[in-house]
Specification:
Layout: E1 3-7, H1 13-25, E2 30-34, H2 41-50, E3 55-60, H3 66-73, E4 78-82, H4 90-96, E5 105-106, H5 112-124, H6 128-157
Parallel strand pairs: 1-2, 1-3, 3-4, 4-5
């Protein structure tokens, strides 16, 4: 079990690093490749066809064709992370407008955390321990909100 990460270019690496951290935190096996749907389509096909992993997390900006190409080559889940650029929504629109029959799950623009967590939730369908880790992660988020609420209320009352 694990996640195959594809980056459309090396410039996507900085944003993708947060996903690496999350996968390490959850002890999820992953590998990373750079491949371009337009410049190296044969390499994309080779990576997808030879991946031992269960889920693909694909980062792309601009025309964002990479997640769709990956989805066309596999029946495994593909999660797209649209990346912002000079025109911040072009990648989002490219990913969400996939033709019927070739779905790509898409998270918000630059929302690397949700992309990684969606992969983990998919892996958790078959892995009870993974589901427990996700539940614990969410509980820590609830605790942080409660703590923040308490701090803000005290701050406002003391003014």
């Amino acid at each position: 079990m694990g996640v195959c990460i594809l980056l459309g270019s090396k410039s996507d690496l900085e944003k993708a690093e947060r996903a690496f951290d999350i996968f390490k935190e959850f002890n999820v096996d992953f590998d990373v490749h750079i491949a371009s749907a337009h410049r190296t389509p044969d390499r994309v096909k080779e990576i997808v066809e030879n991946s031992k992993h269960d889920v693909f997390l694909v980062f792309a900006g601009l025309s964002a064709a990479l997640p769709g190409v990956v989805a066309a080559l596999t029946t495994k889940p593909v999660i797209g992370v649209p990346l912002s650029g000079r025109v911040p929504f072009d990648s989002l629109l490219s990913m969400v407008q996939m033709p019927k029959g070739v779905p790509v799950a898409v998270v918000g623009v630059d929302n690397v955390v949700n992309g990684a967590l969606m992969c983990i939730q998919i892996l958790g369908v078959r892995d009870r321990d993974m589901r427990k880790k996700i539940e614990k992660y969410r509980e820590s988020m609830r605790e942080k909100v409660a703590k923040d609420d308490e701090e803000v209320r005290k701050y406002v009352q003391s003014r």
